[in-house]
Amino acid sequence: MWRSFGVLSSDFSSFFRSRSSILNRFSSSYGIMSNTEVNHDIQEGYFFIDLGKDKAVLEYEKEGKNTLNMWHTEVPVSHRGQGLAAHLAKAALDHAVENNLRVKPTCSYIQKYLKDNPLPQYTERVLPAEQ
């Protein structure tokens, strides 16, 4: 009986290992990228994800001392549907929060992201896009 249990327990642990790899494949096939590194080029005014030969970018202009006009987000066609724009938006908005900056969301994707993620730390920083 105990010997059977030992076999069962090793089969059980391999079952969970295989489920884990299935979940990893599932999450990547549905566009959930958990280990995405977002970089920030302060001099040029954009956040980016290095994709080898390409970049996904979120561009902004600094207006005055404390406002970021987030005006453009672009992900190469070959990398769309992987959640990269959301990673860029989150990084840019987190940067605004951490640096006590206001956000002017003139980019339609940023507007959508804010609507879908109405977190108070973001919404309290948002200026109307037409200002």
TrEMBL record:
One Pfam match: Acetyltransf_CG
InterPro entries noted in UniProt: Acyl_CoA_acyltransferase, Gcn5-rel_NAT, GNAT_YJDJ
Residues covered by the N-acetyltransferase domain: 39-127
Listed Gene3D superfamilies: 3.40.630.30
SUPFAM superfamilies: Acyl-CoA N-acyltransferases (Nat)
Similarity-based family: Belongs to the NATD1 family.
PANTHER family, alphabetized: PROTEIN NATD1
Descriptive protein name: Protein NATD1
Organism: Actinia tenebrosa (Australian red waratah sea anemone)
